[in-house]
Design a protein that fits this description.
single chain, 233 residues, mainly beta, Porin, 11 strands
Length: 233
Amino acid sequence: MQRLTLLAGFALLIAPAAGAQVGHDPAKSPYRTLRYGQFVGINGGYFRGDGGQIGVAPHNGGSVGLRYDFLGAGTISLGLAASYNHLERFIVDKNKGVAAGTTGPFTQNTWMFEGILQFNLTGGKTWHGIAPYVSTGLGVVLSAAMPADTSGFKFRTKGALTPGLGARVFLTPRLFLRLEARSVFWQLSYPTVYRSPPSGDPSQPPAITGPGKEWVTSGWYTLGLSYAFHRPF
């Protein structure tokens, strides 16, 4: 949260400054116009979360991905992204409860596909080579079944909302680094056995004490390298 707050403050400081560039000597101006509007890039990152109340959803682990952006030289950019996420999760034995029946972590790989809407805070320009932005994404997450989990809990296919903050740091007119911090929201549905006392020890409380569904948030921090092409239109 501290990183997100600092990045948001940085973005808010730069955005008003974009209007103050009128009157600058073009040769000395800190602003440079983006000449290209189509980008393709690779990225690596790290997921950090808790997997929900009892940790049975995928959470901590690394990620690698591809991203394609177009109309990226103006105020609004559109993007498509795909990532492979090597995550981990726990298994809770429905007959033993959380205290005695939690095992793991186990590997739970996922694949995420997203559509991304990005608002560039300096418009079609960079400030000292930096172009900060805010974004939001909608995606779908796919994962394989885990036969070892006999509780009936299934992650499988989930919708995801991925708002974020970031900055493009241009090394050349065509090549830039992308630093990004995002939150990933998805909803979990727990099987009925988790909302009843464990059969092996009915004196223990249920694994899930609240509703059978829960929204879970994970942090996602990525660093990428992208290359610019000509405008698509």
